[in-house]
Design brief:
Blueprint: E1 3-5, E2 9-11, E3 19-23, E4 26-34, E5 37-44, E6 47-54, E7 56-61, E8 64-68, E9 72-76, E10 80-87, E11 95-103, H1 105-114, E12 130-132, H2 135-149, H3 156-173, H4 175-186, H5 192-199, H6 206-213, H7 217-228, H8 232-250, H9 255-261, H10 267-278, H11 282-297
Parallel strand pairs: 1-5, 2-5
Antiparallel strand pairs: 3-4, 4-11, 5-10, 6-9, 6-11, 7-8, 7-10, 9-12
Helix pairs in contact: 1-3, 2-3, 5-6, 6-7
């Protein structure tokens, strides 16, 4: 199979070239195609329930990786940038068929009011895992398919009812996944500090971080400076360079790998800002460090 790389997209803001149902911020995305391997990045501003009906969808975040296969689903939390790899498998004629449900806090609040679950229910911690999709949920997914053919003709109220129906079906099907969803309600709004700490070493821009925080760029910069007492661009660049220096000094991975591991997108820019901060190029600093270690080990050379 071939491979293609798609540019980073902001979800659910940049929903294009796929079937989409939207109303007042509630979104469902459906995609079905013959697909070779495709890779890319997504910026998640909302919680996402990913359901795979055919094919494979691999999601990576930090040191975690989730492989979601046919008739499986996984919950992805908002405020992060994920890398993905998706493709159809040979035994199903390379068909890739999946849906993404964007779960806004307001929807979860309405669900709790309608369900028989007590609002003060204590939820035990549930790890993010891949869950099976049962027959009831498969029937629900099939009931959505006709709507994607003419999304403009679907009333907002019906989309909301279908989203609530999904949550009730999950309530019946999977207590572990339900606990994960209920935990989302207990979390406070994503803060600037959380977004920055989660994505510091990802190749994201200030615009991306503002988006993940749910703020305009100007508001993000202003609030960032209040918290960190330093302009956002300068603070983030310095933290990335400090981490890069740590990797350069304590590992033998290549300078290109150090660059990519610390949120810089190309080596030339990385080398330029490194030299501006440390006075020498990354390769010169590594050579000096190696020479110093050799001298300590062999003082009589």
């Amino acid at each position: 199979m071939g491979s293609s790389i798609s540019k980073a997209v902001k979800m659910p803001q940049s929903l294009a070239s796929v079937g989409v149902l939207k109303m007042k911020g509630l979104s469902v995305m459906g995609a079905c195609a013959y697909s070779d391997i495709k890779t890319g990045r997504m910026h998640l501003q909302e919680h996402v329930l990913l359901v795979v009906l055919e094919g494979v969808y691999i999601v990576r975040y930090g040191d975690q990786e989730y492989t979601v296969r046919k008739n499986e689903m996984a919950l992805l939390h908002k405020g992060i940038v994920v890398e993905y790899e998706k493709y159809g498998e040979a035994d199903s004629r390379h068909v890739l068929d999946y849906m993404m449900f964007f779960l806004k806090d307001e929807l979860l609040h309405d669900f709790m009011k309608l369900s028989s679950l007590p609002s003060s229910k204590s939820v035990s911690p549930a790890a993010a895992t891949v869950h099976p999709v049962n027959e009831r949920l498969l029937s629900y997914m099939a009931s959505l398919k006709p709507y994607f053919a003419e999304p403009e003709g679907i009333q907002d109220e019906l989309i909301k009812l279908k989203m609530l129906e999904l949550l009730f079906d999950i309530l019946d099907a999977d207590q572990g996944l339900l606990n994960q969803i209920l935990q989302l309600r207990q979390q406070r709004p994503t803060s600037i500090v959380e977004v920055v700490e989660k994505n510091l070493l990802n190749p994201v821009s200030l615009q991306d971080l503002a988006y993940l925080s749910g703020k305009s760029l100007s508001t993000f910069k202003r609030e960032f400076r209040k918290i960190y007492n330093e302009p956002a661009f300068q603070w983030i660049r310095n933290r990335r360079l400090e981490k890069a220096k740590e990797l350069l000094s304590n590992s033998r991975i290549s300078i290109t790998e150090v660059c990519l591991a610390t949120g810089f997108e190309n080596v030339s820019h990385f080398s330029k800002v490194w030299k501006k901060k440390y006075g020498v190029s990354p390769s010169v600093m590594r050579d000096r460090g190696a020479a110093a270690v050799h001298e300590q080990k062999n003082p009589n050379d």
